[in-house]
Design goal:
single chain, eight-stranded antiparallel barrel
Length: about 210
Amino acid sequence: IMKKILLTISIIIALTISASAQFKPFQFGLKIEPGLSWSKLNSDHLVNGKTKLAFNWGFVGNIYFVENYGLSTGFNVRFMNNEYSFGENEHQITRTINNQYLEIPVGMTMRTEKMGKFRILGNVGYGLGFLLSTNEKNFDINGNETIMLKETDYSKLRHALILKLGVEYYIHKSSCIVAALVFNNNFTNIYGTNYEQNVSLNNLCLEIGFMF
C-alpha cells in the first residue's frame, strides 16, 4: 500500500512539473493607450461635459498560477483630460482640467487556449491612482481666462474599476503583441471632500503592448 501511495504521489508531482513547464508563469511588457477621456458630472449645477483625447503608457507584469489564469499588475501613467461648465447666464464658467496620475492596477487576468497564434484575453481589476500634477484653466462666457477666488481642492487619490478585453498575437515562443480595449471607470470624486463639485474622470482606450 505504501508503495502505491508513493507511486501515486510521484506521478502527481511529475504531472504538475510537466504542466508547469508548458507555460511561462511570468510575463512582462510595455504598453501605450491612445483613446478618449471624459468627465462624469455628478452635481446638478455642472453642465456641458466634453470628450477629450487621451494618451497613457505603462508597464505590465502578469503572474500566472496556471496557463490561462493569473494576476496582473504594474503601473500606468494616466493623463485625464476633461471640460465642463458651471454657473448661470453671464456668470457661467468653463473649466478645463489636465490631470496626470500614477496608477497601480491589480487585476485578475483570464485567457483562452491558443487558437493558432492568437489568444483572447480579459482582465477585471482595481486601479489606485496618485495625483502627480494638474493643470486647471477657467474661462468666462466670452472665452477670457479668469482667476477663481477659491482655490480648487483636488483629491490626491483616484479609485477606478478597470475592464479589459483583447487579443494576444504570438510572434516567437512566449513573446506576443497585445491589442485590447480598456475601460477605466473612476468611481470617486476627483476633488476633495470639502469641495462643492463632484466630478469623476473616465478613459476608454486602445491598449497596444508588447509582452516578453
